[in-house]
Amino acid sequence: MTRLTGGLIDRNAPLNFTFNGKAYKGFQGDTLASALLANGVQLMGRSFKYHRPRGVVAAGSEEPNAMVELRTGARQEPNTRATVAELFDGLTARSQNHMGPLHRDFLAVNDLLSPFFAAGFYYKTFMWPKAFWEKLYEPMIRKAAGLGSLSMQPDPDDYDKGFLHCDLLIVGAGAAGLAAALTAGRVGVKVILADEDFVLGGRLMAESDALDSAAAMDWVAAAKAELESLPNVRIMTRTTVFGIYDHGIFGAVERVSDHLAVPGDKVRQTLWRITAKRTVLAAGATERHIPFADNDRPGVMLAGAMRAYANRWAVSPVKRDADAIAIFTNGDDGHRTAMDLIAKGAKVLGVIDAREAAPRFGDYEVFAGSTVTGTKGRLGLSAIEITRGGRSEWHDVGALGVAGGWNPNVHLASHHRGRPVWNDDLLAFVPSPDGPKGLIPAGAAAGKGGTEEALADGMNAAITALSEIGINAAEISLPKAENMPSEQAAFWHVPGKKRAWVDFQNDVTVKDIALAHKENMKPVEHLKRWTTLGMATDQGKTSNISALAVMAELTGKSIPETGTTIFRPPYTGVSLAVLGGGDTGPLFRPRRLTPTHHWAEAQGAEFVEVGQWMRAQYFPQKGETTWRQTVDREVLAVRSGVGLCDVTTLGKVDVQGTDAGEFLNRMYSNMMGTLKVGMVRYGLMLREDGHAYDDGTCARLAEDHYVVTTTTANAGLVYRQMEFFHQCVWPELDVQLISTTDAWAQIAVAGPKSRELLRRIVDGFDLSNEAFPFMACAELTICKGLRARLFRISFSGELAYEVAVPARYGQALMERLMEQGADLGVTPYGTEALAVLRIEKGHAAGAELNGQTTAQMLGLGKMVSAKKDSIGAVMSRREGMAAEKRRLVGFKPLEAQTQVMAGSHLFTQGEAQTMTSDQGWITSSCYSPHLESYIALGFLENGAERMGEVLIAANPLEGQEMKVEVVSAHFVDPEGGRLRD
Amino acid sequence: MLIPHPLLGLRDSQEFTYLGDANLMFRPDAAAENAEAAFCDYVFQRDNPAGVHRELWFHEQGDRSWLVVTRDTTTHEILGAELASNVKLGAAE
To answer: Which residues form the Aminomethyltransferase C-terminal domain (chain A) (predicted)?
Structure first.
C-alpha cells in the first residue's frame, strides 16, 4: 500500500474491487488507476504492437496506456481508461491485449521482432504473396492487434438523448471555468457548466496551491454551493463536450450511471445536443512527456499526473513506500511535483533538469544539465540512467515523473478547421483567433495556466462572451492566488540509439519518425499515416506535439513550419449505444398504428411493417395451420361475399381552392380539372424526369375541393412534392393543401355483398347502381349521424367501396361493420390478401411502380395527356422513353402449383440467358385461390403482342428455371363487369 | 445547424428536409420550342458552388413551408432565409 495523507478520497467509504481476478480495496473518490497505484500495482496493460508491459501514464482522459475491460457479462466494456473509471464497490476490471497472464504475455515476442514492425510495416511486409493478405496476414494481425473484447451480448442498459439551450456554455470546471460560471451565473443568464470529471475544480484539485490562503478545495466547495443555488446555472459533471458542430451546437455525453454497478432506474448515458449562444472553452491543458531510451516502463509517468495522484488521491506512484521517486523535467513545473511529493512525505531522489541553469525550490537534489538516458526493470521501473556531459550513472528508483511542458487543450477550437497557432513563449500551440464563432478559449486552454491568470481569464472570457450577446456582466472578486514559476526550455527528446517512445498507445518511437523522414513522409499528415502516430483511441493527446518537434528537428525547420495538428470530434471515445440514444429494437423508429390496430390485435392478426406503419397482414382462424390457408380463405371471401380491410395508411391530401382543378391537372399526367363533382378518377403521377412515380385516386367533393390519395410508401414524399410545386413553382394558384392521412380512418368494404352490408349502416343514402355508380363519391352520414365519406372504388376488382370516418371512429366503424355483416359472412382481410386480390386483377403496386418504369410500360401511356403540361410530361416523350417496348403482362406457370419467384428474368426458350437476350422480369407473384394456380405479373418486351407464348422464367440465384405462359394481367373479370354492377 | 425561419425564428435543421439548388423553382416552359433540352438541363444539371448557394429546404416537421436558404457551403454560415412562395412571386413581378 502506498497511500499518502490527505486527498479527496473518503476513507470512511472503502470499496472492494478486482483486477485480473485479484481482490483489492480502494475508497470512494478513487479512480481505478489511483486505487491500483495505491495497492502497488504499476503494471496495468500491454502495448498495442510490441506487447510491452505498460503502466499508467496520466491521471485523466488523455491516458494512452492503462486501457482495461470493465465489468462482466453483457455489461463488459472494452478499451476504457483506468484513469477515468470511477471506482465502485464490486467493480471487476481486467487488463487487455495480452495472451496468457498479464505479467507473461506470449505475444511479447513481438517486441523481439520489432525490426519487422517498423513504420509502414503493413505496406512493406505483407505485400506478397498477394493471396496471403486475405487468408493469413489480415486474420493474424486482427487477432494479435485487437484491444479489448466485446461481450457479444445485447447491451442491457437504456440510453437517452436530449436537447439543452443556454446563453453561455462553459466547457471545463477548473479555475477558469468556475470563475466564468460565477461571473455569468450572477447576472442571471442561462449557464451550463460541463466537466468530464466527477468533481468540480479541474486542476485545482490536483495542486497544492492555496486560494485566499486556504485549501483550493474550500473555494471550489463554496463556488459549487453558490452555483447550485442559482436556478439559471446547470452543473453537469461526468459530461464530456466531445464536439462542436455548426451554429453553436455542441455534442456532449453525460455518463449518468457509469459509476454505478448497475444503472437501476437511471439511464446509463445521455447524449446531449447543446445549443449555446456563446461558449467559454476552459478545457485546461494536457502535459507532454520527453521521449528517452526505454521510457515506456511501468512507473514512468507524467509528472503532473504524479502530482495529481499525490494531492487528489493521496497515492504515491511507487510499488513500495521505500522506493525513491525521480523527476525528469525541462522546466520549473517538474520541480513542483518534487516539492508536493516531499510535502506528502514521499521519498524523492531529486530532479533531473535538462537546463544548465536549473533552479532549486526546496530541499532536494537537482541534477542540472542532465537527462535520463535509460531505464531498467522488466515489469516495472527499478533504475534510471542519469547522464550529464557524457558521464552516466545508474540510480535505483521506483517511479519517474516526466515533465515536458503543457499543451493547451485546443481540441474543440480546432473542430471548425481553426488551426492552432504556435506560441514561442509557451512552447505550445494555442487556439487560433479565427476558430469556431462564439467560442472563447480561457485559462490553461488559452495558454494561461497559472492559477491567478486562469481565474482572471475565465472571468474576462465570460464578460466578453456576454457582452457579445448584449449582456453586461460585472467583474467579480476572485480569490488571491499565485502563478507558480513556469519557465521552461525547448527540450523535446533525449537523442540516443535505443527506442524512445513518442506515442505509447500505438507504439511509435523516435526511430519510427526518423524512418518516416528518411522515406520522405515529411508532411505531418503523411507522418501520422505512415507511423500511425496519434491515431490510437487517445488521438495522440500526449504525443502529437512531441512528434512534431522531433520531425522539426530532423527537417531543420521550426515546429510551426513543420505543421500543426488539429483534432477531430470526438474529444474522447463515444459509445455507439449513446449515439443511438435508445433508438433500438422496437424503438428504432416511430411506429404508426392504424385506427383498427387494437381491434385487429384482439382478432389475433399477424402484423407487418409497412414503412412506419404496422398493418394487419392476415387474420388466422382456429384450425388454420399455414398463412396460405388463411390468405386463401380471406381472398375467396372477398370474391364471393364481403371483406373488410383497413386502408387508412394510404396517403390522403386535401386540396382546396378555386385553382384546385388546375393544380391537379399539372400534378397528374391525366386530366383532373374536368372531373365531375361527386366522381372519382384514377390518377397517375410522373416524376419530372418522365418516369412513373405514384398513383392514387382523385375524388372531387365540391367544385373547389378534392381529396387525393397516394400509395402508403410515398404518402410523405408525394405531399412534399405537391407542396413544392404549390409554393415554389406555382404560388400564384389559389390552392391549399393539407395531409389528412391520420385524420381519416378508411375501410375498404369489398365483394359482391358489400352494397348489402353498407346499406345497413348508411343514414338513408341511396346506394343503388344508378344513384351511386362505379367511381362515385359522396359526403354523407352513417350510423345515425356520423360524418363520413364514401368512395365507390375497387382495388380487388369486385364491387367495392371505401368508407372514411374521422380517425377516432375507425375502430367503432370496423366493429359495427363486423356486427352488421355477420350473416353475410363478413371477413376481415390483411395486406397479403389485398396483394393477392390486386395481382389477380392486374393492378400495379410498389413492385411495378419502383421508380424505373414508365406509364407506357404500365399500359397507362395514354393517360399522359398531350393536351396539357404536367409534371414529367415533356421528359416522358424523350426518344429513349418513347422507344421502351416492355409492357406489364400476366404469367402462369405451366406447372400451376410451382411458384414463380418475383425477380426472375424472362428468356425465350432455347436461347442463352444473357443480358442481351433478357426479355424482362417478374415483378409480383402469388398463389391465386380463385384460379387454383400460381400467377405472376411482370414486364415483357412487346408483352401485349405475345399472349400465349411460353417463356423461361429464370432465377439463377437459386438455380431455378420454369416455363411460364404469357397471359393478360387481368386474371379475374377482365371486362370489369363486377366493378360496375 | 440552425435555420432562421422567416416566420418562426431559429429552427433546428433536423426539422427540415433538404432539396437543393433554388433554381428548381424556375421550371421551363413546356410549350417552348426547345422544351425537351430545357427540361433536361432543369432536371439533371446543377451548379455546385463552393461558397454562397441558394437552396430549397422544406420545414417538414414544422409549418410545411418551403424556404429559400442562402448558405455558404464552405462554412455552413446561413446568410438568410425567405419563404419560397414570396421569392417566386417576387421574381414573377
So the answer is: 886-973
Total domain count, chain B: 1
Check A728 against B56: CB less than 8 A apart. yes
Q: Residue A113 — left, alpha, or beta (φ > 0 → left; ψ -120 to 50 → alpha)?
A: alpha
Asked whether the beta carbons of residue A249 and residue B56 sit closer than 8 angstroms, the reply is: no
Per-residue pLDDT for A53 more than 70?
Answer: yes
Task: Give how far B8 is from chain A: nearest CA, Å.
Answer: 17
CB A465 within 8 A of CB A305: no
Question: Residue B48: which CATH number?
Answer: 3.30.2270.10
Question: Are B19 and A247 inside 8 Å of each other by CB?
Answer: no
Complex ipTM:
0.98
Query: Contacts from B65-70 at CB under 8 Å and sequence distance 24+?
Result: B65/A727, B65/B5, B65/B7, B66/A723, B66/A724, B66/A727, B66/A728, B67/B3, B67/B5, B67/B6, B67/B16, B68/B22, B68/B25, B69/B3
Dihedral, A335, A337, A341, A347 alpha carbons, nearest 10: -60
Distance (Å, whole) CA A383 – CA A374:
8
CA of B24, closest CA in chain A: separation in Å?
8
Binary contact (A245, B25; C-beta < 8 A): no
Closest-CA residue of chain B to A872: B39
Return d(Cα A562, Cα A513) in angstroms, integer. 13
Residue type present at position A342: I
Interchain CB contacts (distance < 8 Å): A and B: 66
The closest CB to that of B60, out of A245, A720, A869, belongs to A720
- Residue contact B84–A728, C-beta within 8 A: yes
Q: What is the mean pLDDT of residues A943-956?
A: 96
Which residues of chain B make contact with A727, given a CB cutoff of 8 A?
A: 65-66, 83-85, 88
Greatest C-alpha distance within chain B: 44
For B84, nearest residue in chain A (alpha carbons): A728
* Average of per-residue pLDDT across A705-711: 97
Residues A843-885 pLDDT 10s: 999 999 999 999 999 999 999 988 899 999 999 999 989 899 9
pLDDT digits (tens, 9 = 90+) for A313-370: 999 999 998 999 999 999 999 999 999 999 999 999 999 999 999 999 999 999 999 9
A818-to-A326, A600, A825, A826, A837 alpha-carbon distances in Å: 88, 12, 9, 6, 20
- Identify from A167, A718, A874 which residue to disrupt to test chain B contact, counting B C-beta atoms within 10 A and taking the largest count: A874
Residue-wise pLDDT tens digits, B11-40:
999 999 999 999 999 999 999 999 999 999
Q: Are A97 and A148 in contact (CB under 8 A)?
A: yes
| Nearest-angstrom CA–CA distance, A955 and A961 | 6
**Domains located in chain A, CATH noted:** 10-121 (3.10.20.440), 159-285+408-468 (3.50.50.60), 305-399 (3.50.50.60), 489-582 (1.10.10.1100), 598-648+743-838 (3.30.1360.120), 651-739 (3.30.70.1400), 885-980 (2.40.30.110)
Residue A396 has pLDDT above 80, yes or no: yes
Mean pLDDT calculated for residue range A398-403: 98
Give pLDDT, residue A927. 98
Q: Is A387 left (phi over 0), alpha (psi -120 to 50) or beta?
A: beta
pLDDT band for position A145 (cuts 50, 70, 90): low
Are the Cβ atoms of A245 and B66 closer than 8 angstroms? no
CB A962 within 8 A of CB A952: yes
Structure confidence at residue B35 (pLDDT) = 96
Residue A111 has a pLDDT of 79
Collect all residues from A whose CB is shorter than 8 A from any CB in B.
245-249, 275, 688-689, 716, 720, 723-724, 727-729, 731-732, 869, 873-875, 877-878
CB contact under 8 A, A728 and B17: no
